[in-house]
Amino acid sequence: MAQEKDSQVTAAAVLAALSQIQDPDLHRDIVSLGFVSEADVNVCGDNVSVKIVLTTPACPVREEMKKQAQDLILALPGVGHAEVTMDAAVRSTGVGRGPKVIEGVRNIIAVASNKGGVGKSTVAVNLALALKDFGARVGLLDADLTGPNVPTMMGIPQGFQADSGLAFVERYGLRVASLGFVLRRGLPVVWRGPMIGTGVRQLMHDLPWGAEGELDYLIIDLPPGTSDASMSAAMEAPIAGAVIVTTPNAVSLEDAVKAVSMFEKLSVPVFGLIENMSYFVCPHCGERTEIFGHGGVREAAEELGLDFLGEIPLQVDVRTGADLGVPIVESDPGSPVAQAFAAIAQKVAAKTSVQHFFAEPAPAGA
Ligand SMILES: Nc1ncnc2c1ncn2[C@@H]1O[C@H](COP(=O)(O)OP(=O)(O)OP(=O)(O)O)[C@@H](O)[C@H]1O
Ligand SMILES: [Mg+2]
After folding, report:
1. How many domains does the chain contain in total?
2. Does 71 share its domain with 116?
3. How far is the centre of ligand 2, averaged over its atoms, from the C-alpha of 71 (Å)?
4. Residue 220 and residue 121: Cα distance in Å, rounded?
5. What is the distance between the terminal CA atoms of the chain, rounded to a whole angstrom?
6. 20 C-alpha to center of ligand 2: Å?
7. CATH code (residue 66)
8. Residue 119 Cβ contacting ligand 1 at under 6 Å
9. Cβ density class 3-38: b for 16+ within 10 Å, e for less
């Protein structure tokens, strides 16, 4: 129980005030959601301190909620000072939801599209880094077994584990694994369907992803198409959600729709669509050119009843960063394109938190 000496304020009154704050994604108040309880409220004289524990460090309304909590507490009679601390503990999706969970991984997020070359790997890498920059512990699994691009994009030499065997490496604060680590550069790899399933399973379950601290998010970069790798990934572990990357042109969009229906059939929630190569801003004159058209993905998302997660411009330093092994979110986190990835990361994190609450019974008293 909180101290009530020399003060009319009680922890219960503080909680009652805080229960006016709604989580915009979960549509419930933060007290019934368990983000704050009596044990998180400390009253000392006219000082009130409170800790609110969100479900992700990438919460888009973190600062807004903090301010709201501060104002509500200060408005209570007998309160002179209010100190609100925001914390985060990422909860796990998928426990008890069909396939075997990956030990030490709280949430798996798949990045997919039916079409090749639309920017899945670029999004996977930068999304992982953006989530990490918010303070989450993040892993990146390259499930593209025939053409793994994650090593190059992350500046990790191809084939450097060819003799030692596959292990994940730490890079830019991420835990990364790719079959590209064990495949020598230039050697073609021919996989038959069942072998791909085995490869994906091994990447997911045979590596100690959660060693030395659980991962909040494991981002999976999928190859194009409704291939064996995508099916295996969805069947081998509970995926919190898939994000579908597409360019705004009609042909890519048609393929994106196929990816959406594949995930729906596999009972994997689709978090929404990302429009990549949305437009090009000329670095010389600043003129904006909409090479693949613009806005088509937002419209398609609306038609499909899915969320539009954001748009990434076609920008030279996104491509050079990938080729040089320093992704844009790492090399220039303040740039508009890195900020676009950060906003997408917040939406994805919020969607993941929502999945958690759907997967679990509501807390008592809610
Ligand atoms: N927004 C962007 N601006 C500039 N270049 C980009 C952008 N997005 C992706 N690229 C470049 O386009 C190429 C294809 O991107 P990427 O490899 O991420 O696509 P992919 O969908 O993963 O391809 P695949 O289907 O082969 O796996 C890469 O050279 C990448 O650097
Ligand atoms: Mg790729």
Report:
1. 2
2. no
3. 47
4. 9
5. 21
6. 44
7. 3.30.300.130
8. yes
9. ebeebebbbebbbebbbebebebbebbbbebbbbee
User: Does residue 118 have its Cβ closer than 6 Å to ligand 1?
Assistant: yes
Question: How much is the average pLDDT of 342-348?
Answer: 97
- pLDDT in the model for residue 365: 41
Greatest mean pLDDT range, 87-96, 182-191, 209-218, 280-289: 209-218
Residue 32 lies in a domain: yes
Q: Give this prediction's pTM.
A: 0.85
Q: Is the CB of 275 under 6 A from ligand 1?
A: no
Q: How far apart are CA 73 and CA 350, in angstroms?
A: 25
Minimum CA distance residue for ligand 1 atom 11: 319
Shared domain check, 259 and 119: yes
Range of 258's domain? 105-359
The ligand 1 atom at the shortest distance from the C-alpha of residue 149 is 17
Instruction: Verify that 23 and 144 share a domain, yes or no.
Output: no
For ligand 1, is residue 252 a contact (CB within 6 Å)? Answer: no
Q: In the chain, what's the furthest Cα-to-Cα distance? A: 76
Among 324, 309, 303, 283, smallest CA distance to 111 is for 309
Identify whether 366 is part of a domain.
no
Q: Is 310 in the pocket of ligand 1 (CB under 6 A)?
A: no
pLDDT in tens, 97-153: 567 889 899 999 999 988 889 999 999 999 999 999 999 999 999 999 888 999 999
- Distance (angstroms) between ligand 2 centre and the Cα of 350 equals 25
Tell how far the Cα of 100 is from the centroid of ligand 1, in angstroms: 31
DSSP class of residue 8 equals S
Let me know whether 68 and 173 are in one domain. no
Among 30, 62, 88, which residue terminates a domain?
Answer: 88
Q: Is the pLDDT of residue 233 over 70?
A: yes
Q: Is residue 365 part of a domain?
A: no
Q: Is 61 a member of any domain?
A: yes
Q: Is 363 in the pocket of ligand 1 (CB under 6 A)?
A: no
CB under 5 Å of ion ligand 2: residues: 120-121, 149
* Tens-digit pLDDT profile for residues 141-185: 999 988 899 999 999 999 999 889 899 999 999 999 999 998 877
* CA of residue 307 to ligand 1 center, whole Å: 22
Whats the size of the chain, residue-wise? 366
